[in-house]
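pasting for the record
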Amino acid sequence: MTNDHLGLFAGFLTSVAVLPQVVRTWRRKHAQDISIWQPLILITGMALWLAYGVLINDLPLIVANTFSIACYLLLLLLKIVYDRRERVGTTR
């Protein structure tokens, strides 16, 4: 196993960790129990790791953080949409 393989596997595991929360939020159609700050802080940190990965040309950092950012942006979008719907009283 090369360093890149190890990095890609580690990045894969940490990146897919968010998927159960995204799926659960999407299925339940609400995100009251999710803090808005958690995905915002993570997205910021991952964007910095992504920038670092690009600067040093590190494929595992680039791939893992790109995927993670996309997942957390989706979770953040679901939070905003579902919280807004709950405030106006629609359940659509």
